[in-house]
Amino acid sequence: MNADRLRGSAAAKRHNARTIAALTGNPGCERRSVLDAAGVDKVKLAETIGFAGSFGQSRFALARGNAFEAMLKADDCALLRSVLDVGVVDYQDLGEDTDDTLTARHGRTRELLASSTSALIDHPLLTLSVAGQTVFLEPDLIAFQSEGRLRVVEIKSFAIVDDQADAAKVSAAAVQAAVYVLALRDLLGEDRVSHEVVLVCPENFSLQPAAVVLDVRKQLSTLKRQLSRLSSVSSLIAALPPSVSFDMSLSPETLISSLEAVSARYVPECLSSCEMSVYCRHEASGTTAALGRSVRESLGGVDTVALALDLSTGAAEPTPEQDEAAALLRTAARLRASALAAAGPAADRAAGVSAGRAAG
Amino acid sequence: MSTLVALARAQAFAAGRAQLIATVRHLHVHDHPFVLIPLAMAGEANAPLAAMVGSAADKPRLLFVAQPRNRDERFAFADALAAELVPYLTSFAGDTEAVAVDRGRDVRHRFLDAPQVWVPNTGGIDFLRLFGRSTRFRRVDGDYPVPPTVPLLGRWLTFLAGASEMPGSALLLNAVQALGMHWATGQSGAEDAHLASLMAWIESGAAAAREAESGPVAGPATDPDFDNRVLAPLIADGDPALPAVLHDLLLPTWQQMWRALALLRRLPPGDRVAGRWDGDRDSYSSFVEHLAEGGGPQPRRDGAVAAAARLQRLENAATRYAVQRAFDDPLVMADHRLTGAAFGGVVTLANPDRVDDTGKRPVLRPRIMVATTETVRVEAGASLTSPARPAQKARVISVAPTTTGWDVLLELSGGMGRKLVADPGTVPLVGEELLLTTLSEAYRPGAAFPDPTETPWTHGGPPAPYEEQQPA
User: Fold this and answer.
1) How far away is chain A from the Cα of B273, in angstroms, using its nearest Cα?
2) Which 8-state DSSP code applies to residue B230?
3) C-alpha closest to that of B302 among A202, A205, A164
4) Confidence grade of residue A132 (pLDDT, cut at 50, 70, 90)
5) Chain A residues near residue B133 by CB distance under 8 angstroms
6) What domain of life does the UniProt record list for this protein's source (chain A) (predicted)?
7) What is the ipTM, given to two decimal places?
């Protein structure tokens, strides 16, 4: 089966650094790999089957991000040049295109980058091989080329206050920048592209820009490892039954049965990064993984909540591999029961509140 | 996550209701707390949008900014927040009590009570910390003057946010963490971060919790959809309906906050909670004194010596808090029993009058034998304590396997009076059930740090003297 056929008649969603970063966040998830490879609009799919998540972006945040970027790029990038301390170099904007001119833009990007003239290169178009497929990256970056060496410049609108910024946002920015470094290296070779990227953010509580250098070697190696681990999507898709389709004109029931044909690996972290997560959470209900990785591990790696509880009460007979986990769970259950029984009235009173409320 | 908490989560999932993971309350809940629910403007660096504040459940007060990107309105908001919060914070700086220090050679005074501020979640604390940072250095004179209440508010917020990092401190608390310490839900920790969902698990159950997820958020981040559909047109038009909309948005969280406080109050406090609150009163008292003496704003970043000393205080507090919770609560101690850091057993032999006279002078060293069926992961020479007699040390003499478990021979010292005969009840009797643990409440002396003026060059040398920092 062909990946594009899975999508039906809708236009394909393109990859960007954010989707690749999310893809590598949970590389074992076949459902996400397949849907992304087929370019399915996951937001719309989740809505159609009645499991819409909240993945919008506030227009205030967008406005500020755009204002910050516009300010940096105003007057032929005057402010950006001064914060990067790059002096007088060319500024080349490769611009945005429609789908049919992508190859031409990619060609221009390649040409310009290969020429190794010093320049700030905006909106270059890159390609990256993801799960056996070549994807175009819709990049939102500037590559700064100087003396034949390239540096990725990421403009982000979160603030750096007293040299510190939100750790989650910095690490997300670092992973995204690493995706660009990787794509640039694919194009130009290892040593032409620096593993140090420049992050340009507003400083403190103003809009004044500050540039910091991030070393993304760690993110690069993680990314490379996870990209190589991504189960080969083409063979996955080829193995799917022909009835599987994510054409949005199909009924929700048909779409859900198509989804069921592709296995997912739900973890709670998906909720913040994947558009399908609300559905997958619903599907994974009752598994220990749905309670979080650490809960699953603490329960001895047992798959379902029901089995973990049955092992803890002795209602289920453990298999030889489960022996150790079962012993731990039984001891835990005994200790928990005896501590609660000893606390008796106090615990009853506190638990009683909730029971009373539910009854009323 | 410990296996016991994980098991409680599994049980909560099966029951469809949150399950207790503590039998006592591990934090001080004030009789007159101040609840503060901040909302931030998306995209901006910590720009306030609104806050619902107050110290009475039936009198929420809404503060809001009509144009969040307007600098003057931002400081007017800070001024309004200061007018609500600072009088509450200083209202406890009244009567004092004398506390003996330096083994009774000196006394110092501390206030009889201290304030307690509640926010919904850790995001709320981060917001207050950054809001403190953006206001505490502001000048009341010069080119961009702000009302004098603004930098004062900044100092207080910075103090509270700093205190909240100290494990066991109860000056600034967040409801999600406080509830999560006492109840386990049948969902993941990430989903618990949603206050409405967590409260629903405790009060009504799993189905209500799912529904609550689509309800109003507890801030400080707003829902993007709300921003785009509701807030943006209101702000663009300067619509007078804005405060009413924000009030309706915040009110459910406000009510949840007070219900969360009521839930926590139903649990009896642990024995060591009051002692930790004494420590909070100490730090409140010294901060009030610092302000009264005209002390400057807290630095942007600690110097090397201050940072090292603070780190050590945090580590000590974390260890102490973990041990105290286990000593106060058999359900927390059960975690340590599961890992072998504690075990319960029965005293099978006791020699309460044993005197060791091999040293310069004879000392009382009773010995007891404890039989246990639990995992024992201690060796001869280890020092154990029992929560029932925290002042007494039990040194392990030998551990011998039996058909049902282990026989542990212990030598006791301390906590038995000053005579060569143990005071009645201080030595466990044969047949008594005993819990022994390697956890210890013993005082940990602080490390010696150099004076800040003697900071070695490896750590950047002595910090520059304080200069009034320009607003950034």
Assistant:
1) 16
2) I
3) A164
4) low
5) 161-162
6) Bacteria
7) 0.85
Mean predicted confidence (pLDDT) in A62-86: 83
At A26, the pLDDT band (50, 70, 90 cuts) reads confident
Q: Do B130 and A272 touch (CB under 8 A)?
A: no
Instruction: Report the gap between the CA of B97 and the closest CA in chain A (Å).
Output: 32
Q: Give the pLDDT confidence score for residue A329 in this predicted structure.
A: 92
Is A292 at the interface with chain B, CB within 8 A? yes
Residue to test with chain B: of A295, A304, A309, most B Cβ within 10 A: A295
Which pLDDT score is estimated for B470?
45
Which residues in chain B (266-285) have CB-CB distances under 8 A to chain A? Answer: 266-268
Residue with tokens 């143990």: B422
Closest residue to B8, CB basis, from A56, A329, A336: A336
Window B:364-423, CB contacts with A under 8 Å: 375
Low-confidence ranges of chain B (pLDDT < 70): 465-472
In the prediction, which pLDDT does B398 show? 92
Task: Give the number of other Cβ atoms within 10 Å of residue A91's Cβ.
Answer: 14
The answer to whether residue A74 neighbours chain B at the CB level (below 8 Å) is no
What percent of chain B is helix, strand and coil (3-state, nearest 5)?
Answer: 40, 20, 40
Distance of CA B24 to the CA centre of its chain: 15
Per-domain boundaries in chain A: 3-9+26-52+231-285, 59-227, 293-359
Q: Where along chain B do its domains lie?
A: 3-328, 340-437
Checking phi first, is residue B292 left (phi over 0); if not, alpha (psi -120 to 50) or beta?
alpha
In chain A, the N- to C-terminal Cα span, in Å, equals 56
CA dist., res. A158 & res. A64, Å (int): 9
Q: Which two tokens stand for residue B20?
A: 């207790």
Q: Hey, are the CB atoms on A294 and B187 less than 8 Å from each other?
A: no
Of B1, B44, B472, the CB nearest to A204: B472
Name the DSSP class of B178: H
Contact A165, A209 (CB under 8 A): no
CB B48 within 8 A of CB B40: yes
Say yes or no: B204 contacts chain A, CB-CB below 8 A.
yes
In this prediction, residue B348 carries a pLDDT of 93
Q: What is the dihedral of CA A234, A235, A239, A240, to 10 degrees?
A: -30
Q: Which fold has domain B340-437?
A: Elongation Factor Tu (Ef-tu); domain 3 (2.40.30)
A314 touches chain B (CB under 8 A): no
Highest mean pLDDT among A169-178, A234-243, B283-292: B283-292
Could you count the other beta carbons within 10 Å of the beta carbon of residue B429?
10
Task: Judge residue A134's burial from the number of C-beta atoms within 10 Å of its C-beta, 0-12 exposed, 13-18 middle, 19 or more buried.
Answer: exposed
Count CB neighbours of B65 within 10 A: 23
Expressed in angstroms, the distance from the first to the final Cα of chain B is 41
Across the interface, whether the CB atoms of B188 and A292 are under 8 A apart is answered yes
Q: Minimal Cα–Cα distance from A45 to chain B, Å?
A: 18
